[in-house]
Amino acid sequence: MGANKELRVGLVGCGFMGRTHSNAFGKVNRFFDVEYQPVLAAVCARNRASAQAFADNWGYSSFETDWRKLVARKDIDLIDIASPNDTHAEIAVAAAEAGKMVMCEKPLGRNAAESEKMAAAVESARTPNMVWYNYRRVPAVTLAKQLVDEGRLGKIFHYRAKFLQDWTISADLPQGGLGLWRLDASVAGSGVTGDLLAHCIDTAMWLNGPIATVTAMTETFIKERSHAITGKVEKVTIDDASAFLARFQNGSLATFEATRYARGHKALYTLEINGADASIMWDLHDLHRLQYFDHSDEGRVRGWRALHITDGDHPYMKHWWVPGLQIGYEHTFIHQVADFLEALASGKPASPTFREALATDYVAEAVLQSANSGRWEQVRQ
Ligand SMILES: NC(=O)c1ccc[n+]([C@@H]2O[C@H](COP(=O)([O-])OP(=O)(O)OC[C@H]3O[C@@H](n4cnc5c(N)ncnc54)[C@H](O)[C@@H]3O)[C@@H](O)[C@H]2O)c1
User: Fold this and answer.
1) What is the count of structural domains for the chain?
2) Which protein residues are within 6 Å of ligand 1, measured from CB?
């Protein structure tokens, strides 16, 4: 297609997200007609053999084993952070100070204080930035946003979201180290609140506006686990489960729940919005469908419609196959890169920016405060 400007990417981290991002950078220009073309310049991982193998597999022309070297390189325009949460702030601030564009995985920092520094750094460097809250780019979720913005739901009364997994139920699972850093609060920042609920909160505020107040409960079901790095049995300080009630600024009420102890559920992210005129429901396990109920339908045929989001007039879908054929999880990342490149060409910010994503960290902060205090907490705005 017509891409004529190179965007040289330096990726940090070659795990799960390193793969989704690399796939997206490699495919975006084949499906989207955008001015910029990502060039896979370098990948960084601490282990030399892994970095080299990843570079070979995904087509990066070089690799580094220290992110500082990556950030210092003159032949890189964009630093993409896909490493664990404890690395985000330091890398993002250094990258912004080096004049690089910065993309960062969610949650932005381990806590709102880190995220504030990151937002300030990209803003003072005036460099393009974006956080990978990819669920906004599921076509069915983007359509939900369009329907809400068009006022089809009328006054919103309720927002309901949950994100359920079951992979940490075994008490034998260690915390810390590769793959299990999510169980170590010093690396992750928090448990399911910053990990799973962050997605729910980002989508919720994108669809339904700011959250004003919350009251929460959290639980750590397994109190001690052996640590994969120290080899010792250590206290677990992440939240294994987190549930909260919220009031949105628009007056609607919400419930949010996330856990890694819902036996049988692998990645069940669901959301539902109930308005005076219509309701919508969405489910990640059936991600190409949007359930829609429109009260203005004639009574005899009124009911929930299962919209199959595969047609050319659905968000993003004209770039893919033919009507009726669905796309999947990896496409959300391709959409996000496409939106970033389009924003870059037009000189506009790509959403969510670091500043916008900070709002999610303020909600997570209030959730954890409330779980601790037992009181309703105001969300910083
Ligand atoms: N958007 C999403 O849906 C989504 C999904 C999963 C993870 N995430 C986020 O993505 C980030 C990475 O998660 P993941 O699941 O890919 O983790 P992962 O454990 O699969 O991979 C992390 C990678 O980072 C590397 N790494 C660790 N420290 C490093 C350092 N100092 N320098 C360079 N590389 C380093 C590891 O070796 C590994 O390759 C996290 O912030 C996580 O919250 C987002």
Assistant:
1) 2
2) 12-18, 44-46, 67, 82-85, 87, 105-106, 132, 134, 178-179, 195
